[in-house]
Amino acid sequence: VLFRSANSRGPPRKSWEIEAERAALAEQAKRQEPAAAARAAREADLLARTAGGPPATTMEATDTGRLLTVSVPHLASMEGVDLDVEKTALVLRFPEGCRHGTLSLDLETPVKPSKVSAKFSKKAKVIKITLPSA
Among residues 77, 23, 69, which one has the least CA distance to residue 47? Predict the structure, then answer.
């Protein structure tokens, strides 16, 4: 599978920008009550590990086609997510605020676009897209 991705919010941020935002969140956490401070610290850590770039993906073969799993740690729901599938290409667009941009894939084998399904797991923070072979 060939991967192409474009961040719809502009170019990827520099490491010093990410570190400055992480430090600001950590400083803010020190001034908050303990539960809020712990939450802000987790958000700062998550930002440092996942900021910039496309979401992580895995593609598995199944009996009927392929299963694409997309890791989306910044996504709370499928609201605003747009999935476009053609026979040999897939485009997944995310809302502005979730930091995932756009994921574009060229598919090695043709799929049946009308039979494609997607399911979002809130708990696991992944989207599983079933791609039946044509």
Answer: 23
CA distance 22 to 119: 31
| Residue 39 pLDDT | 72
User: Whose structure tokens read 């996942």?
Assistant: 50
Name residues whose C-beta falls within 8 Å of residue 60's C-beta, 6 or more positions apart in sequence. 66, 67, 69
Mean pLDDT by 10 residues, the chain (134 residues): 40 63 72 66 60 74 92 85 92 79 86 94 92 92
Angle 38-54-132 from CA coordinates, rounded to 5°: 115
Task: Kindly state the tokens that stand for 51.
Answer: 């900021």
**Residue with the two structure tokens 């599938």:** 85
Quote the CA–CA distance of 85 and 19 in Å, as a whole number. 36
Helix (H) or strand (E) holding 36: helix 34-50
| Whether 105 contacts 129, CB under 8 Å | no
pTM as predicted: 0.60
Euclidean distance between the first and the last CA atom of the chain, given in angstroms as a whole number? 17
